[in-house]
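Reopening this one. Same input as before:
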Amino acid sequence: MILPDATALILLIPVLAAIVLALLRDYRISARLNVLATFLTLLAALSLLLHQPQAGTYVVVDDLNVVFVVLNNFVGFTTSLFSASYIAHELETGRLTPVHLRFYHAMYQVLLFAMNLALLANNIGLIWVAIELATLTTVLMVGIYRTHEAIEAAWKYFILGSVGIALALFGTILVYMAARPVVGEGFDGMIWTVLIAHAPAFDPAMLNLAFIFLLLGYGTKVGLVPLHAWLPDAHAEGPTPISAVLSGLLLNVALYAVLRFKLLLAANEAAIAPGPLLVTLGLISILFAGFMLYRRRDMKRMFAYSSIEHMGIMAFAFGMGGPIANFAGLLHMTMHSLTKSAIFFAVGHVAQVKGTQTMSEIGGLTKSHPWLGWGLVLGVLAIVGLPPFGVFMSEFLVISSTFSRRPELALLLVAGLLIALGALLLRLHGLAFGEVKGETGEVKASYWPLAVHLALILLAGIYLPGPLVAWFQHVARMLG
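Same output, byte for byte:
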């Protein structure tokens, strides 16, 4: 059997749902089916926590990708709940037509399928294909409003994403070339479980060159500076649910691909250490994004730069390596996905209520729209790393582990975090407090996704269950 049962469901449910959603004309039914499909996929993903099927030719399940798969499908489900109310408003205001909605829901499921396939693939070529499919899908969704700005953002994403994926393809070919003298011609040179078992015998020079191309290629998808230029535009011009998925999920999928190949280098003693490259790109991303936050005027564009900062923190943590830093990187990835998607849930409805994303035209949200205002306040306080939220714990672990090894790097990291904190709190004050600005109408909003995400990141900052800690510790040891 090529696909074990649970992984078959994780991949097949989105495909079947996409086909049905492309044919449905009734918005209410399609929105509910979209939620149902993501919920069923989440249940299948959760079953992997109880039983990990044996690796097949095309699919592998291990402790590393289970973390990503479960997180991917949980945020995919909650975002589909938020999307139902968000997209209904877009239909009522005429920004999207029924035909657009059929396309949107079908592409949402295709995107989830592509991300799940990338995470589960046991073939490095299949990982590349899946991430390319996810890129093309999000390009189409970013441009769905068909405005000049949306088309420009989608085109920029397509061009830069294509350059990145081409570099990743060349890196993938180089890995195959390094494996061929050891494992022979054919499929075995592409299968991850075979590659990691024979990695110590690979030509280290070929592996080094391959990793450079893979880091640049997949790093473009991660949004690391200087490969980030597509990300702010894509967030600002696309539908807000797609912004939530981009920041909360797709960036993680690209980072997962980098980590897979980092393991390959770590298994070969003669290969270069990938850590310094990740640390350098991570620090540059943190500092650059921190300063750029002060210059933003658009809400969604500002939080896009915040995502660049936090992907930099993850790259820095995984680059430092070791049990504590890797644990912190995994925890930060989880907390950022939950927090940033929650922020976009609030921002999306705020933009609909006010009719604008320009921050100078928005104010006093805690007075005019208390649920949205205070939800945004809590989300921003969490994302800047203030206690008692989960991001504080992950950032504290990254900083403390770095101080014990490289104090000078820790100082740069702390400086970047403080710069970003100042910018976001400055903008938050104008958005949430003071004089009420802009429209004061209401939209039909579902606050449950926002509330659930905020509750989870608050609980994670106070208490992490023992099994979750043990699981993350095990994966941290795997990452070296």
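So the earlier flakiness isn't reproducible anymore. For the record, The chain has a mean pLDDT of 89.
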